[in-house]
Amino acid sequence: MSASNTPDTGYSIEEGNNASRNAYAWAKKTFTTRAGLPGEPARGLDGGFSNEIRFGQERLGISSDGIGTKIELAERLDRYDTLGYDLVAMTADDLIAAGFVPTNLSNIIDVNTLSYSVVDELMRGLHDACQFSKIAITGGEIAELGSRIGGYPGARMNFNWASTAIGVLHPSLAQPLSGAAAQPGDAVVALQSPSFRSNGYSLARKTLQRLFGDKWHEQAYDGPDAAQYPTWGDALLAPSLIYSPAVAALLDAGQPLRGAAHITGGGVADNFQRVLQNGLGAELDNLFPPLPAMQRLCEIGGIEAETAYLYWNMGNGMLLVVAPEAADAVVQQLTALGYAAQVAGRLMAEAGVTLRVAAGELRYG
Amino acid sequence: MSASNTPDTGYSIEEGNNASRNAYAWAKKTFTTRAGLPGEPARGLDGGFSNEIRFGQERLGISSDGIGTKIELAERLDRYDTLGYDLVAMTADDLIAAGFVPTNLSNIIDVNTLSYSVVDELMRGLHDACQFSKIAITGGEIAELGSRIGGYPGARMNFNWASTAIGVLHPSLAQPLSGAAAQPGDAVVALQSPSFRSNGYSLARKTLQRLFGDKWHEQAYDGPDAAQYPTWGDALLAPSLIYSPAVAALLDAGQPLRGAAHITGGGVADNFQRVLQNGLGAELDNLFPPLPAMQRLCEIGGIEAETAYLYWNMGNGMLLVVAPEAADAVVQQLTALGYAAQVAGRLMAEAGVTLRVAAGELRYG
To answer: What is the number of other CB atoms lying within 10 angstroms of the CB of residue A13?
Structure first.
């Protein structure tokens, strides 16, 4: 996928990837500062989202991320107490996808001009999300940055919100989950996503702006789940489901987990390819169907399936690679925990990821 | 200090403190999620900047902060490779002031539109600062947020930059440094600051804007150190000195450190009062003189000393409380490490902080 092929999102994925790679190269040069000392980074995790660092016998992971432009939805709807779920999901689920059980989170709120009440609502939601996922909020900062922060005009407060989470390698794992132990024939279990999570909002917003104008968030939503979401704003603000408690429970139960992919920016195939090592590929012919709001946006916005699967999770927020004989038990346990899960496909000896979805067959790599 | 007394900085310190206290109250409610588990927060650190969390035998500290509006200076001067020192200083020196030796740092760059070259310069500076302070950069994120980010018009890139640092409690310490062990008669050792660090820029910028107009950064700087800083922009962009290696070296040498205050927003007295427990006070009659640029800004901007000492570090970036008989040795060791340090005063049995400076006597509390 080259920069010139990207739809009208305003961003170049390739430029971003290049800058991230370069930033990581600078970071890597600092690893030797901790050689043989507390905080020494583990080797061989190039390109991973959650870096392993060691303190004595303890093996910790660390992950940083924000919730991007989803915040504009909260500003448009003047409703701030669900964003905490999005904030926790981004880092906690990156950590658990690498085998680290999230334990602590530190958050930074950059605001233009402080609103005590908005910060209170944000923190209430963060508290709720951290109770849900058994994470202690052990650090935080609120910075008033004036005109350095922008957002939806007339909102009580404009802000950006990011966090850094720490986790501890699950005691059953000798190494972080990387997909290195995966084999052809392994089952892929999908966990359903009831929301956009925090990705793909630029494409969604620009499409709705084009169709409905400036007040697109007030437009009646007419997807099959319209009873739940009266407006397009409501449909897009739906909070992230946090998967880390469910995946941690699988590890606690000794399920043979061989890899996990948190589906964020880049969509199903791009994120799943990171767990495919040793030349393996995958065929995913039983993914969850697209989130109704995504499906409806494709229809009314004329967005091709190829594009939608590149920018949105399309209803699948986490993919797990498990030994084939354990797949049914894994699905059962996830279901018992209240998560929607199903066997979505299998690993193949040949490279490349094929998605067989209602819109047709999509091939990657 | 009440909100109505603040000079023209655009911000209310009291409103910010209230929101921070409320955010901390929400955070504290999540501590029990880790009771008896990895990542359990230590008790009794209310109001501390660096929270202690425990993993097995390991006792870690975590601290988050950004570099605020100092970034506008870099944008005005189109020079980005020194901000890394500011970023590291904010969190690393909060950690070491609590007795945690910083080991790892994760950073988040929020940008309007990505500039590969600016990110490269930022990361080069961060690399340099982390080499200086023996910190491994083990996490990072670059987020393109479009119009949610503002800054100096025409800059190659507008951005905000924050980080979360982790540290390990120095092995010589049974508890984090809090000032609880301090006694009347203890010596206060000041470490000189050669820059504003990352605080007080709103007051500085507004003053210069008023005096010199929009292009104030190009105005010739006429302080006594003008040979080093041709323009006011250069004088204000001067990077932070990172104290953590020096304070860690004191702990390594077994110096009887009983408290430490990192002088950031709020100035000398407000930050130093945090280490004064059990009703103690302090008399500081031999602080380093104000940074020349701060002194000059007071003169040309008509800023009273009371205000300046409330918003700026005034040349003193870290204050250490040490047993009186060790004060000279501590100063000697710091000097040998290349830091400017001197005995600045002493603890008193009576509450309140008195600063005896060239501008007169300033009393707090």
So the answer is: 19
Which CATH code fits A28-169?
A: 3.30.1330.10
Domain map (residue ranges) of chain B = 27-169, 187-364
- Residues B288 and B331 sit within 8 Å (Cβ to Cβ): no
**Cβ atoms of A273 and A364 closer than 8 Å:** yes
Q: Does A164 touch chain B (CB under 8 A)?
A: yes
Q: Mean pLDDT, to the nearest integer, of A96-120? A: 97
Residues of chain B contacting A55 with CB distance shorter than 8 Å: 55, 58, 60, 103, 168
Domain B27-169 has CATH 3.30.1330.10: yes
Take residue B131 and report the two structure tokens written for it: 């080499």
CB nearest to A143's CB, from B41, B66, B126: B66
Please indicate if any CB of chain A lies within 8 Å of the CB of B22.
yes
Tell me if A30 and B124 make a contact (CB, 8 A cut-off): no
Nearest CA in chain A to B47: A139
Is the ipTM higher than 0.90? The answer is yes
Distance CA A279, CA A288 (A): 26
pLDDT, residue A222, reads: 96
Q: What is the mean pLDDT of residues A174-189?
A: 95
User: Cβ of A252 under 8 Å from any chain B Cβ?
Assistant: no
**Tokens 């009291």, located at residue:** B14
Q: Domain B187-364 is classified in which CATH homologous superfamily? A: PurM-like C-terminal domain (3.90.650.10)
| CA separation for the pair A221, A199 (Å, rounded) | 20
Distances (CA, A) of B162 to A31, B24, B71: 20, 19, 11
Number of CB atoms found within 10 A of residue A177's CB: 27
Cβ of A141 within 8 Å of Cβ of B56? The answer is no
Of the listed ranges B117-121, B136-140, B184-188, the least confidently predicted one is B136-140
Assign B124 a pLDDT band (cuts: 50, 70, 90).
Answer: very high
pLDDT at site B17: 86
Looking at every residue in chain B, the average pLDDT score rounds to: 94
Each residue's pLDDT tens digit, B203-256: 999 999 999 999 999 999 999 999 999 999 999 999 999 999 999 999 999 999
- Write out residues 36-55 of A within 8 Å (CB-CB) of B: 37-41, 51, 53, 55
CB contact under 8 A, A138 and B72: no
Q: Tell me the chain B residues in contact with residue A31 when contact means C-beta distances shorter than 8 Å.
A: 136, 138
